[in-house]
Write a structure and sequence with these properties.
Blueprint (H helix, E strand, L loop, with lengths): L5 H14 L3 E5 L3 H14 L3 E6 H7 L7 H16 L7 E8 L1 H4 L3 H13 L8 E4 L6 H18 L2 E6 L3 E4 L2 E3 L9 H11 L3 E2 L18 E2 L1 E5 L4 E2 L12 H9 L6 E3 L7 H9 L2 E6 L1 H17 L1 H4 L9 H4 L1 H23 L8
Parallel strand pairs: 1-2, 1-13, 2-3, 3-4, 4-5, 5-10, 6-11, 12-13
Antiparallel strand pairs: 6-7, 8-9
Helix pairs in contact: 2-4, 2-14, 3-4, 6-7, 7-8, 8-9, 11-14
Cofactor: Zn(2+)
Pfam families: F_bP_aldolase
Pathway: Carbohydrate degradation; glycolysis; D-glyceraldehyde 3-phosphate and glycerone phosphate from D-glucose: step 4/4
Length: about 350
Amino acid sequence: MTVATPERYSAMLAAARNGGYAYPAINVTSSQTLNAALQGFADAESDGIIQVSVGGAAYLSGQRVKDRVVGSRAFAAYAREVAKQYPGITVAFHTDHCAEQYLGEWVDPLLDLEIEQVSRGEEPLFQSHMWDGSTVPLGRNLEIAQRLLEKSARAHTVLEIEIGAVGGEEDGHSAEINEKLYSTPDDALRVVRELGPSVGASGSGSGADGADGAGSDGVARYMAAFTFGNVHGAYKPGVVKLRPELLGEIQAATDNAFYLVFHGGSGSRPSEIAEAVRHGVVKMNIDTDTQYAFTRAIAGHMMTNYDKVLKIDGEVGEKGEYDPRSWGREAEDSMAERVVEACVQLGSAGKALR
């Protein structure tokens, strides 16, 4: 098993929740970063999640094309082929941070495609999709989430929702760092009233009727990213004020209704990450740190070999040093090491499902 089936994905999320660990969800933008993520998961003997953002999906189609569906389909096709070479782990594919203005040109067409695939007895292209309603009122957020949940059920995929705003900047979207970054138990209670808990009984549709709690056997319907001070990007210590205890209050108020997601975790203290996982986080998005690991290795190669990658004073340089494969291998190894670090920190290392 290399790419998760819907059943396997549900089993992965349940294993993480019940086992007290979480999966790193690694954003990728190219075949190189994808291969680095796979290498890291394999080295850590960890299952994991590989995801593309709204900007990443457009970039994967080519900078002259910028078609998110084309980029997503190309990514998934390539990823399925190379993932076959890692039989000891299971990976799931996810689309990350789709705001309302992108639904019609990205996630909705992908869900329509996946509904067609499932109707033909095939597996869906992706295993989960994120609806980012952080910039709209909660009522509108949940209204759209309900519509997408109905499509997700037909596509045999899992929906990820965001309740509250994440600060910082990602793919052109920015939010201030203020009190709006903290969700409340009342927000969570409303989510359960309107959507039901994260896991439903096998064969159940969306909504609360017939649904079991998140710790029971059943089909994973959605994951919830409640905000507790999360900020995208890299910040110096003291800027980000995380309050992971809010997740415990949310779970207590809703009878542990949720599979939780941790956004904006770069630079978080290990104790904050551990507390969030204890409260039911099963997925943690990692982008900034792996971007830096990848690019830092390239910068090191270029600075060390500047007279070989540049044709200085009429010389010809050294092809072996400016060949993209030379610095590419170093970048992939560096990023893979950061993925292993994430697996160890989140507790998924050595726990690949057999």
